[in-house]
Amino acid sequence: MSDPLIPPRLRDDCFAMPQGVDWVPVATALARLREGLAPVNGTETLPLEEAAGRVLAKDCTARRSNPPAANSAVDGYGFAHAATGAGVQRLPLVAGRAAAGQPYAGAVPGGHAIRILTGAILPEGVDSVVLEEDCATDGATVAFDGPVKPRANTRKAGEDVVEGAVALAAGRRLRAPDLALLAALGIAEVEVCRPLRVGVLSTGDEIVAAPGMPAAPHQIYDANRPMLLALARAWGHSAVDLGHIRDDAGLLAAGFDRASAEVDVIVTSGGASAGDEDHVSQLLRDRGRLTSWRIAMKPGRPLALALWRGVPVFGLPGNPVAAFVCALIFARPALSLMAGSGWSVPQGFDVPAAFSKAKKAGRREYLRARLNADGAAEVFASEGSGRISGLAWADGLVELGDGAATIAPGATVRYYPFSAFGL
Ligand code: AMP
Ligand code: MG
Questions:
Q1: Cα–ligand 2 centroid distance for 271 (angstroms)
Q2: Residue 10: inside a domain, yes or no?
Q3: Averaged confidence pLDDT in the chain
Q4: Segment 342-357 mean pLDDT
Q5: 303: three-class secondary structure by DSSP
Q6: Distance 247 CA to ligand 2 centre (A)
Q7: pLDDT at 6
Q8: Ligand 1 in contact with 344 (CB < 6 A)?
């Protein structure tokens, strides 16, 4: 019999793996998440001008070619290439001109030229254009130095997009340039997925719901809810403020019941660990088909992934830094998939480190980082996950893989600007 009063050796690393606990690597948790989720149903048809930020529910097919007809790429003089050669060319000008929106009705005879402006349809008999700066003219004849390349300074019909081609595929979240493309192709309306309703809930007896309210010394303001609501909005979802609920299983269950009728996915923060006061994970384990938690990741060890009445629940850690990082790493791709725009993988890039760090094996780490003037990643002075100022300081995250690593200044590290996470 071992003595029940011999304590375990104290460790200064709270992420050291306790014996017998199954830590889930980040990649495993992401894979499980991806398998377990599906897009929500429902589409609507919107006029193009209201569709920015929305997700295409169907492929968009070009109703006409871009450009619809061959035209001039410059202001200059147009003619048939076949009648020109090397050396100085002198071509008589036909009367009139071809301009954008004012097509030339006649044909230009071989060996003649016509004044033509950018965007004008090439008149019959014209297949090449010389830039006006390369020409001399007396008003009756135009002269330029040959040879000119065939089809010089012209745009072919459909050289950008051909009528009937898929211009943008289903799942695309429409950005400003996409609207330009679809408009050019004659697409007036698009079928888009209905917005994903993301409910955001804070938990904890110590939390004061709004920064305008009085707070006693043992209380703290809810920092996570405004942050998570803003993230959901930035990702193009419909963010629903579910408020704050105390650490009480009955109140939490009632809150989840209400929320699951109103939103497609619930994002909570706080109480996601396995301690006495971690009511969210306890409740989700008892009644919410908890699927995964204790991610081998810093910050953000406790992460509850569960279903409440069929509605996915992301139980994020309470610490704002951990809640933020977990939202970027786990919630973002998951919400993207649910919203119909597919699983999203952030694009990071390799930069030199401007810091030193010895990292233990067995967990992935994300450091609050930003690039210095030399393009090297510096990290926030403290790794404390309560240091919200470090989040505001950072422009991105440095990712350190699951293995052990010793990083010295100049070593290559993976940097993800916040824009890689759609921010
Ligand atoms: P928990 O995950 O509930 O154990 O909380 C971890 C830490 O995060 C505690 O110090 C909490 O007070 C803090 N915390 C939890 N929720 C929030 C919140 N919404 N805003 C700011 N801090 C929070
Ligand atoms: Mg708590």
A1: 4
A2: no
A3: 92
A4: 97
A5: coil
A6: 7
A7: 67
A8: no
What is the number of the ligand 1 atom nearest to the C-alpha of 302?
A: 2
Which residue in this structure is represented by tokens 């996601």? 272
pLDDT exceeds 70 at position 7: no
The count of structural domains within the chain is 4
Closest Cα partner for 71 from 123, 119, 131?
119
Please give the residue range of the domain that contains residue 183: 44-66+159-193
Task: Determine if ligand 1 sits within 6 Å of the CB of residue 268.
Answer: no
Q: Do residues 76 and 101 share a domain?
A: yes
Q: What pLDDT digit, counting tens, does each position of 271-320 carry?
A: 877 777 788 888 888 887 776 567 889 997 777 888 898 898 999 999 99
Is the domain of 361 the same as that of 229? Answer: no
Asked, for residue 2, whether it belongs to a domain, the answer is no
413/394 same-domain check: yes
Strand partners, 419: none
282 lines ligand 1 (CB under 6 A): no
Q: Whose CA is nearest to atom 10 of ligand 1?
A: 319
> Is 17 among the domain residues?
no
Pair 302, 224 in one domain = yes
pTM for the structure as a whole: 0.89
Judge if the upstream peptide bond of residue 147 is cis by omega within 30 degrees of 0: yes
Q: Is 128 in the pocket of ligand 1 (CB under 6 A)?
A: no
CB-based contacts of 198: which residues, under 8 Å, 6+ apart?
Answer: 232, 237, 238, 239, 240, 263, 264, 265, 267, 335
Q: Is 281's C-beta closer than 6 angstroms to any atom of ligand 1?
A: no
